Amino acid sequence: MQIKNLTMSFGTQILFENVNINIPDNEKISVVGVNGAGKSTLFKIIMGLEYPSAGEVILKRGSRINWLPQVVTDDIENTDINVLDYLLLARPIDELNSKLQNLYNELATPNCNQNKIFKEINKVQKELDYWDQYNAEAVLLKIIDGMNIHDDVLNKRIKELSGGQKSKVAFAKLLYSKPEVILLDEPTNHLDKESKNYVINYLKDYNGTVLVISHDVDFLNQVTTKTLFLDKRTHRLELFDGNYDKFKKLEAEREANFLKQAQIQEREEKKLQEIVNKYATSSGKRKRMAQDREKKLERLKKQKIQILDRNKTINFNVIMNQEESKQPLKITDLSFKYDKRASKNIINHLYFELTAGEKFLIIGENGVGKSTLLKLIMGILKPDSGEIKFGNKTNLGYYAQELELLDNETSIIDNLSNLGFNQNQLRNILSKFLFFGDDIYKKVSILSPGERSRVALAKISLSGANMLLLDEPTNHLDPETQELIAQVFKNYAGAMIVVSHNVQFVNNLGIERLLILPEGKIVYYDQKIVEHYESLEEAK
Q1: Alpha-carbon separation of residue 186 from 33, 69, 306, 316 (angstroms)
Q2: What pLDDT, in 10s, does the model give residues 268-295?
Q3: pLDDT tens-place string over residues 241-251
Q4: Interior CA angle at 464 toward 460 and 468, to 5°?
């Protein structure tokens, strides 16, 4: 893969500028950079989903490329077939066999162009050989087993799956599709330990190019042998030998050198500025000296080394507009199923209530109805039976797992414009979520999932809610930000219902009770229970 003269900008924000770099074949490469450096955008450009401002990404002719986005796309979201049939679509074997049969039928007709048909037959046969038609089902079954996709999931329709199940199925389909270039954006978000180990070993033995964006340092260190660094300071890309840990050591040394150079520049700038200030209004030689130093000062400022502030963090509080009710929520005999013809409910005769200020956790395996329950409470879905009753002061705030409540076609600031704040107030608030200057006018659709998460957090911080529903709020955030928002939500005075299997995050929240689905059992908080579900990778 060759990146040639690549430039990408959104308004006044430059992500890449005149980048030229060759990506070696058959390498496993981690893609790293600070938030907003353009990692996910680079993947979209490579996939042809975004068009650069200038330049191009050149792939070898006929290269098969596929990717796993951080958030599953409409391709899987709107699919109305069962999981096994969906996975089989990754290799067009049935379609090619049908085409081959038609060619043989055509060959049997009088006066046919045999040479042309034989060429087509040879071409189709080569494709079937690539897809390994006779071993394909065995390959798929091995992937299904390695990814811990059980029979009950294989028989479900795609649209019936939870968010975590969809991501795991999409990953399995990607592996089965046998691409020559794989792009992975946060691939371990929905993997249990066994599935993660399977994927690590699969990628180590994979004969192709792999580019990975991930906060999972262990995964990067085990899989990757090179590191592609997106430098937000220079808007360039640089390829380093070695895994993530080796890169971090090199980066620390580079940053120390940059800091020394920046300090020298700072002293020189101060010295030049003093001369300019002292002799700017003089005449003769002194004036010419001041003018000379002013030119040097301008050149120095243009070449000034930018030191990245790695201590910038999200800084926010969720303010309640009014005190909450003593009992903000009561659920009585609640039942729901998506397919009204099905005999089994996804939520089955559920009872529970919250007290003021209570932190309440929902856990369970993938697909048992955790996100569904939050959507029922929010009124996005309607129960088949039972009652959801709110206290007369309850005001809900909702963080959706797949960030679907954001308007992707409008800007960041427009997503917050109906909350009763003026533009200056919104600018100030958004700066606490690391959106500065013209960042606020970016369309949400071009943001990375991590940036969209920050927009959603900004929105919930302004909602005035005295009861929060949080559906996997840490999914797209780096570990430092996860720790920070755990402290914010711990200090939140209102009631809260959280769906999460992130043990470190949950432990910091001050959870009092937890609800285990599908049983509907409520117990006092126990870290071992959460660890059990985290090991199974049950979240969405």
Answers
A1: 14, 8, 28, 25
A2: 888 888 888 888 778 878 888 888 888 8
A3: 999 999 988 88
A4: 55
Task: Look at residues 24, 357, 380, 84 and name the one whose alpha carbon lies nearest to residue 210.
Answer: 24
**Alpha-carbon distance values, 30 to 77, 83, 210, 530 (Å):** 28, 30, 8, 30
CA 165, 167, 168, 172 torsion-angle sign? positive
For the 329-536 domain, the top CATH level (class) is alpha beta
Write the CB contacts of 296 (distance below 8 Å, at least 6 apart in sequence): 272
Residue 123 has phi, psi (to 5 degrees) of -65, -45
CA nearest 301: which of 310, 309, 293? 293
Is the Cβ–Cβ distance between 390 and 324 less than 8 Å? no
Alpha-carbon distance of 469 to 396, in angstroms, equals: 7
List of residues 6+ apart from 352 with CB closer than 8 A: 331, 360, 515, 522
Least Cα distance to 531 among 500, 510, 508, 509 occurs for 500
Contact by Cβ (8 Å): 513, 522: yes
Q: What gap in Å lies between CA 357 and CA 492, rounded to an integer?
A: 8
Domain limits, the chain: 2-97+125-247, 329-536
d(CA 198, CA 143): 9
Q: Helices 449-461 & 423-431, crossing angle to 10 degrees?
A: 120
What CATH class has 2-97+125-247?
alpha beta
For 57-61, 391-395, 474-478, which range has the lowest pLDDT when averaged over its residues? 474-478
Backbone CA torsion sign across 103, 108, 112, 115: positive
Quickly state the pLDDT bin for 314 (edges 50, 70, 90): low
13-22/2-10 β-pairing:
antiparallel
Q: What is the 3-state secondary structure (H, E, C) of 323-387?
A: CCCCCCEEEEEEEECCCCCCCCCCEEEEEEEECCCCEEEEEECCCCCHHHHHHHHHCCCCCCEEE
Give dist(CA 453, CA 470) in Å, integer: 12
> What is the rounded CA–CA span in Å between residue 197 and residue 202?
8
Q: 40 — phi, psi (to 5°)?
A: -65, -35
